[in-house]
Amino acid sequence: MGGEQTIRRIVDTFYPKVLADPLIGPLFPDGIEEVKEKQFLFLSQFFGGPPLYSERFGHPMMRARHMHVPIGIEEARAWLSCMRQTLEELELPDELREAMMDRLSGPAYHFMNRT
C-alpha cells in the first residue's frame, strides 16, 4: 500500500478533516500531534507492518482506549467519511481504498460506546 510514506500521508491528510468536522473535531480539544503519531503507529501495525504501536504502548485494546470518548453511530460515520475523503484525495487505487475502508469499518463501529 506504500509503506511508511503512505501511512504518514494518510494521517497528515486525515486529521485536518477530522478537526474541521463539527461532530468529531471537538473530541480533540488538547491538540492533535500526539494523536497523529499514535494513529501512524497503529495504522502501520493494523495494515500488516511492524508492530510499532504494540512495541511502544502494549496491546492496542483500541475499544478500551476510546471508552472516555463519546462515540455513537454518527461519530463512527463521520470518522469513516473523513477517512474515505482522505483516501480519495490521495488517489489511492480503488481496490486498495475499498479494502482499507472495509478493514477500518469494523473497528470504527466497534468503538461505539453510546447509542
From TrEMBL:
InterPro entries: GlbO/GLB3-like, Globin-like_sf, Globin/Proto, Globin_bac-like_CS, Hemoglobin_trunc. It holds the Pfam family Bac_globin. GO terms for molecular function: heme binding; metal ion binding; oxygen binding; oxygen carrier activity. The keyword NAD does not apply. PROSITE patterns: GLOBIN_FAM_2. Keywords: Heme, Iron, Metal-binding, Transport. Its cofactor is heme. The keyword Heme applies. Belongs to the truncated hemoglobin family. Group II subfamily. PANTHER family: TWO-ON-TWO HEMOGLOBIN-3. This is Group 2 truncated hemoglobin YjbI.
